[in-house]
């Protein structure tokens, strides 16, 4: 019954997100055809017939708001978001399909690695509190997370790219590389992703360490941990099965939000390195007022966050029986 209630809330929230995504672009001033008309008007006056032709070519919605909403829902279900204005006449779905794998490989894998590594280091720092084992990851994580994404990216780009010539400075693969499922192309993609991945890892690892350490230190003072230690259980068992299992819940919530945000890419990092992921594509769409592309990306990011939170909510019940009530 509780699972059905959660699923119903998920569906309701999803419908609200889809509806808001439909309304917001229509509240913005102007229309998608205005930018194209403004460019044409520099070379001479634009007639009404030319304006209508541009609107028809770009696929600007027509009709009543209800008919537009019905067409929009059909587009969402069929994943048909029209044609991109920036990359005309390329379909929006094709552009998203090309950029999504790069973002999932870069941001997704690094986020999972940072969460696992940061959580384990946080557990170790809390269990060995008062020693150098706690001080090293805590101070290192605090120092690393104090730098913004773009600042760390620029430092790595300058020293390891332009000065050291160790790693590529932009792109997801070599200029002459041909996309294919071959060993050489995969290695080339991984090679180009090292600097962006290091940037995300360095700036996000400290947050996972500090969050897990602080929560687990509070958990170590609870009665059930003291009782487990008094019964002579092994230190590893007390740390993992008793203290860490309960302390990880706040970190798990943050991980769900971070994992849902993976689809949105890392806008600043992808922009600095010219990495062709979702974040870089979103920057292009906003800069060029590409409403169909923006609408598709915003919707995809929102849905991914909702799905991730829904899965984390279910996982909560498995880790903490108290939440099942």
UniProtKB/TrEMBL annotation:
<feature type="transmembrane region" description="Helical">
    <location>
        <begin position="296"/>
        <end position="319"/>
    </location>
</feature>
<feature type="transmembrane region" description="Helical">
    <location>
        <begin position="139"/>
        <end position="163"/>
    </location>
</feature>
<feature type="transmembrane region" description="Helical">
    <location>
        <begin position="189"/>
        <end position="210"/>
    </location>
</feature>
<dbReference type="InterPro" id="IPR035906">
    <property type="entry name" value="MetI-like_sf"/>
</dbReference>
<keyword id="KW-0812">Transmembrane</keyword>
<feature type="transmembrane region" description="Helical">
    <location>
        <begin position="104"/>
        <end position="127"/>
    </location>
</feature>
<keyword id="KW-0472">Membrane</keyword>
<feature type="transmembrane region" description="Helical">
    <location>
        <begin position="255"/>
        <end position="276"/>
    </location>
</feature>
<comment type="similarity">
    <text>Belongs to the binding-protein-dependent transport system permease family.</text>
</comment>
<protein>
    <submittedName>
        <fullName>ABC transporter permease</fullName>
    </submittedName>
</protein>
<feature type="domain" description="ABC transmembrane type-1">
    <location>
        <begin position="100"/>
        <end position="312"/>
    </location>
</feature>
<dbReference type="Pfam" id="PF00528">
    <property type="entry name" value="BPD_transp_1"/>
</dbReference>
<dbReference type="InterPro" id="IPR000515">
    <property type="entry name" value="MetI-like"/>
</dbReference>
<keyword id="KW-0813">Transport</keyword>
<keyword id="KW-1133">Transmembrane helix</keyword>
